[in-house]
Amino acid sequence: MIDFTEWLPGVGLDADGGDIATLERTDAHAICAMAFSLDWRSEHARHSDQLIAPELNLWRDILPYELEPELMDRPVDHVARHSYRPGELIVPYQPEKCFNLSQRAFHRRLRQDMPIEPRAGRFYPRAFISGSRGIFPEEMRPFRICTTGGDMICCDINNPLADKSLDLTVRILDIWAARDERGGCCNDVAEMVTHNGPGMQARWRGRPTDFWADQPFARA
Fold it and tell me: What does the alpha-carbon distance between residue 71 and residue 81 come to, in Å, rounded to a whole number?
């Protein structure tokens, strides 16, 4: 079993190195360190993606509502689990987010020092198709090239987990009292555990990803 506590340097210390009051159980005003395990299946494998959230604010941050009651008034090492059907934890798959574009719409010279070609199955920052479908040049969220051929490319901007069943497991690693705050950001846990990585391992509709173009084994 993974020892998640090794990943938590500094938990239990304030910015000045002083002690923070630890709590025995969670409450709505506590700060927590939590470990998340997201399990799902592709056509070829079972996948498990891990995430450590070293400082979640239980008053401000958004937990999946099915799990929130299972994480309140609980001690360190408590584990909660929930299984989600496709589209329950995150936005469901939307067919209109899979669309064709002209080859010219892919900005091959976005990186001036390295021209990039669109390859089937691979993920790219959305900036590569900025100007299409309301996408801005600064947008770094990933999208997938589904197929390429002739003058067209097929793009999918759905989350790659949008059509997958998901099992989410949460373990409480540490609990301590919140201090007075002014401002701060709000974290959506469902988004944290499902974006920028999970789901990208799977093929698009069973089709092999083109890993062999562009001299993949070249070394500098």
Answer: 10
According to DSSP, the β-strands at 79-84 and 46-57 are unpaired
Matching CATH number, 12-87+163-178+186-194, of 3.60.15.10, 3.10.50.30, 3.30.1360.10, 3.40.50.880: 3.10.50.30
CA distance 169 to 81: 4
Q: Show me where the domains of the chain are located.
A: 12-87+163-178+186-194, 95-156
98: helix, coil or strand? strand
33-50 per-position pLDDT tens digit: 999 999 999 999 999 999
Token look-up 């996408």 returns 135
| Residue 135 Cα distances to 3, 39, 99, 198, 210, angstroms | 41, 30, 13, 22, 25
| Number of helices (H), then strands (E), in the chain | 2, 8
Top pLDDT among 15 and 141 is at 141
The span from the CA of 4 to the CA of 208, in Å, is 34
Tens digit of each residue's pLDDT (9 = 90 or more) over 151-169: 999 999 999 999 999 999 9
